[in-house]
Amino acid sequence: MHDQTPELLDQTRRHFFSQCRYGLGAMALGSLLAGDGATPVRADVQSHPLAPRPPHFAPKAKRVIFMFMAGGPSQLELFNPRPKLTKLSGQVIPQSYVENKRFAFLNKDAKLLGSPQKFARHGESGQMISECLPYLSTIADKIAIVNSMTTDVFNHGPAKFFVNTGSARFGRPSIGAWVTYGIGSESTDLPGFVVLQSGPRGPRGGAPLWGSGFLPTTYQGVPFRSGKEPILNLSSPHGIDLNRQREFVDAVHDLNEMRRAVTADPEIATRISSYEMAYRMQSSAPALMDISGETRDTLEDYGVEGDKPSFARNCLLARRLIESGSRFVQLYHTDWDHHGGPGFEINKALNQRCHEVDRPSAALVKDLEQRGLLKDTLVVWGGEFGRTPQGEDRNGLLGRDHHIDAYSMWMAGGGIKGGQTLGQTDELGYYAVEDRVHVHDFQATLLHLLGLDHLKLTHRFQGRDFRLTDVHGKVVEKLLA
């Protein structure tokens, strides 16, 4: 007995649970995997977390490009003209509209503000689009405009979390992480979920907007920077050639596999996958960013200017990414927060933001269609909320406050019925009064188009099954082709 004591003392609590594969540890693991109908993770998913997996049912879309306009574009200047609002501009909004309402900055006696923008009908469908978006108007019959979007959160950071993760608190998996968790990726040389950013700064909320939350970290979004080195520290150190790099990756792979066989920890599979992906991206990522092979016409269509970083360049890169098999590409473009004041007025500043995104957004849809990709690529454009019918005066320069009760987004391709405007608001554009689409409904619809049932795409964490849509959401059937 005394000879065995030092060995027993060396067995820590962590060692006991990790090595007790056929005793208490095994029973606990089996209970966790089997409890409440949870399905054990398949062996191929453990070994290759991003391997393509079949959806719940036949999908209409295979991939997503989500253009996120961070800050809240004004639906009243872009997609939802309200003649009555223009007629009553300058008058105090009726009390019945704002009773028991909260605003980020406005007082309840703020005056109504009619839009200075001109609207016209476009395409055979007669979509109402403002003069701010002349290029988008040329694809009016390909897009579905939703003018009845609603959300629950009126401050930027939490509202961005809500759209992207289904919760106003950070820490939940992002929509791109849920998608790659559900159906994997078709790319072997690039990440399944990629994030591209443009504008003067990053979006409020930062990395948790594309994080994996409690899902394995392999499903988180990978931000690509502009330039020849899109990912920091991706290049091999000086003096290390590809052969030595391969030997290192192989050795680490073998060590990680030995540990994974003992612990069955899914994060080790993530680590293995990350090393392998980083090795392959040493050549694939720079090749992706090199757009010198694109035709002059293509570059002009998007509005790409040389090597200059821009939303236009990111739209072109998004197309190249989905051609390479990436499943979910998200483009963040900032500075849509037009409260008024210098640089944030509803006229000049808004027009500038529209000028930056209008041409490349339309070019992306046209380019996807020409290449036969639009039919199974879902394209989404929108922000975290809209803007109030009341004006906000800052130093004599007018803007609008945050608005959650009615705003606009548009979608195209991937099973969407184009050439329609869904939803109606009241005559002041304050409330959605017909075909209301909540953020959770939008999320459920996006997953549905990818062949995923939002009620079944779940992950067990801290004793309960979580999903993107929380306990809400319904598929918006009218949007489907």
Structure commentary:
The chain contains 15 helices and 17 strands. The chain is of the alpha/beta class. It has a domain at 43-232 and 311-426 and 454-479: Alkaline Phosphatase, subunit A (3-Layer(aba) Sandwich). A hairpin with a 2-residue loop joins strand 16 (459-461) and strand 17 (464-466). Pfam families: DUF1501 (PF07394). This is Sulfatase.
SSE layout:
Blueprint: H1 5-10, H2 13-19, H3 24-34, H4 43-47, E1 63-69, H5 75-78, H6 83-87, H7 95-98, E2 119-122, E3 127-130, E4 143-150, H8 156-165, H9 175-183, E5 193-198, E6 222-224, H10 242-263, H11 266-289, H12 296-302, H13 311-323, E7 328-333, H14 348-370, E8 377-382, E9 386-394, E10 397-403, E11 407-412, E12 420-422, E13 424-425, E14 432-434, E15 437-438, H15 439-449, E16 459-461, E17 464-466
Parallel strand pairs: 1-7, 1-8, 4-12, 4-15, 5-6, 5-7
Antiparallel strand pairs: 2-3, 4-11, 8-11, 9-10, 13-14, 16-17
Helix pairs in contact: 10-11, 13-14
